[in-house]
Amino acid sequence: MGAGLDSDGWGGSELERLARTFLEEEDEGRAADVLGRLLPIVLPKARRELSQRFACSAEHREDALTIAVTRLWVVRRQIEWQGANAFGNLLRKIATNALLSILRKEKDKDASEPEIAVSPPTPPWLDVDKLAGEVMLGWPEDVSMAERDLRVFAAQLYWLDRLPWAEIQPLVSGPRRPVSREEFDRWVMDPATLKDLAFRELMVKPEEVVRSILNLDVAPELGPLIAHHTGNAASGPGIREWTAREVVMIVLRLGYGSLAESIVAREDLKCSKDELDALVDRCRNRLPFLRITQDLIEALKPHPDKILADGWLWRRLAFEYWYRHEIPQKDILLRLAEPATRAGYPSFNQGNLTVWLSNNRLLEALRKRLREMGEDL
Q1: Each residue's pLDDT tens digit, 36-73
Q2: How many CB atoms lie within 10 A of CB 313?
């Protein structure tokens, strides 16, 4: 028998159908798809209840809900179905416990410390890039990182820059490493090469994110950009339609990925959480990820379905943003959910993202590969 649930105040036929399927579905892929449809129904209610019960930041509530969904996924097959109300009550209980834990840690830590998002354990980065490329992008084990770089560079020149072989050949071939036309043709048609090309294009540096939002000709240095628009300059002119305050908020929130609470707490900005959220919404269509994806779709014709719709490409991106850059799940979704759908992979949603990152699932895929090689992370 699984864990029993109390019942209280949750209902709805659609919620009941999805929640029950989520708990009882044996296939993880189908369960993840169901979770993606279930969360937009249950999370708003759970979010409201936490807001009514606890006087805390929205960031803490969202972190607690992320933890709750992850834990719910881990134990879902141990839970006995007792109705939609019971399911909602369990989610609320797990989220409440997670939030209390976050608030206790917040109370105990030094007030001068910057807030730290709920972040994953960081693996040692010895050859992780190489290993992740093998497991998630399909690179053969015997292809070195330097060789990968060369092949991806060749693919970039061919597919994105549209250069002819006569111009590409001297750029990729030399006396120590001659490249024949036959070898080049294999490279630029190889799925691993093309997926790695797409991965690198979609791993956008913070400076490029800010450049795209502010519509600048060149990527700015973010530190000097903030310094130029703070202090006495905060009330002065900004950049194009953005005020000086908004420029700083954009750099902090969407460039550096700073948490909303830390930005709201800044005395020099004097912004509210609602104002910051509205600013992010204004910037949403200016983020570069959807444009990059559309450019890749056009460039890789007639191959985008085979390359860009591959779920492992999006897992690789999620892995990099989560582990390497410690980007919160909600920000990963902001960057990649719509581009993934446009590319033909509609399953990049909160449900699947939770599955990939819960219990370090993607990290375990790398560890499994290492164990097969007689090593471990």
Answers
A1: 888 888 888 888 878 767 667 777 788 888 888 887 88
A2: 25
**Are 75 and 217 in a shared domain?**
no
Q: What angle do CA 195, 66, 315 make, to 5 degrees?
A: 10
- Residue 331 DSSP SS3: helix
CA 138 distance to own-chain centroid: 21
CA distance 178 to 336: 38
Residues 332, 186 within the same domain: yes
Does 252 lie in the same domain as 147?
A: no
Shared domain for 249 and 177, answered yes or no, is no
With both helix axes pointing from N to C terminus, report the angle between 84-108 and 58-75 in degrees, rounded to the nearest 10: 130
Per the DSSP assignment, residues forming a β-bridge with 79 are 3
Q: What is the pLDDT of residues 113-157, one digit of tens each?
A: 444 344 444 444 447 888 999 999 999 999 988 899 999 999 999
Contact indicator for 177, 291 with CB cutoff of 8 Å = no
Q: Number of folded domains in the chain? A: 3
- pTM reported for the whole predicted model: 0.71
User: Any idea of the CA torsion for 123, 128, 134, 135, to the nearest 10 degrees?
Assistant: 10
The residue range of the domain holding 87 is 13-108
